[in-house]
Amino acid sequence: MAAAFEMYKPAQGKRIRWTTFAVGCGLAAITGYWLSDTLQAYSVYLQYVLPLVIVIGISYLMFYVINRPQMADFLIATEGEMKKVSWSSRREVIGSTKVVIITTFTLATMLFVVDLLFQRFFMTIRVILVPGM
């Protein structure tokens, strides 16, 4: 039984592997809660025990998957690459976000005005007929 819970390369990629495991267990818990809520009309055992068994099973499966050599090596390499990334500063991110928002609103306003102009033009040449005119 101890071999089932041994970590492959335990000193490497701890953060990303445990984060992946925690997210998988969180999704399993949400699924268990949904299943428990769905099975309210049935017996207490079916409503609570089945979701619990499924959550435990998915959690064990997540632990097994993240410790398979191929997946563990991939996650370890991913964490190594993420450490090499040159992250933008908070100030740069805020400035870039402002530029994107302003550009989006400007473009939307320009498209709205052009759309109104085309609408007026087509109404003038009677391609679009307005009721009552």
Describe the structure.
- There is one protein chain.
- The chain has 133 residues and is mainly α.
- The protein has two domains: 2-84, no CATH class; 87-133.
- It has helices at 14-38, 44-66, 69-84, 90-124.
- Helix 1 (14-38) runs antiparallel to helix 2 and helix 1 (14-38) packs across helix 3 (69-84).
- The mean pLDDT is 87.
What labels describe this entry?
mainly alpha, flat, 133 residues, single chain, 2 domains, 0% strand
Largest sheet: none
Task: Tell me what portion of residues adopts beta-strand conformation.
Answer: under 5%
Termini separation comes to: 84 Å
Nearest-integer average pLDDT: 87
Alpha carbon gyration radius:
28 Å
**What count of domains describes the coordinates?**
2
Order of helices and strands: HHHH
Secondary structure layout plus pairing:
Elements: H1 14-38, H2 44-66, H3 69-84, H4 90-124
Helix pairs in contact: 1-2, 1-3
Short summary:
With 133 residues, this protein is an all-alpha fold. The chain has helices at 14-38, 44-66, 69-84, 90-124. It folds into two domains: 2-84, no CATH class; 87-133.
